[in-house]
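Page 42, continued from yesterday. The earlier attempt failed because a stray header line got pasted into the input along with the sequence. Redoing it now with the clean sequence only.
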Amino acid sequence: MIARILLIALCATIFSACATQNVQTRKQERSAAYAQLSPEFQSLVDQGKIKVGMPKEAVYIAWGKPSEMAQGETPEGPTETWLYHGTTWDEYRYWNYRPYASGFYYYPEPYLDRDYIPRKYLQAQVDFQNGLVKSWRTLPRRPS
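This time it went through. Structure tokens are written below.
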């Protein structure tokens, strides 16, 4: 049980460290695109934020590669939607049994055990029209 908690804490630490490092990495990777952004957009990208009117490159630098991309069309022309997925951990409780010794006899002793199961959910959606952000939204995690 303690080993599971330590493993989850370690993973959370690693992933949170990677998230802040990735903005810097993506800025270096796409330095020419970053340099062409307005000062307002550069400031937002540095904070990992996006805004309507931003180009796709700015969204990529701020939020990274999307989990999924979808194409569509409106009366104004073709659209592209980027979907970002997150992961949450749901606790799963169940009855387990451990051996209990009493003299020469072993009895199964019930106890409440738990595991944590990863669950993906839609975290954010960005809609582009003509290569610029038309709309975006973040979505809450669904309750377990």
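Notes: The chain has a mean pLDDT of 87.
Reminder to self: strip header lines before submitting.
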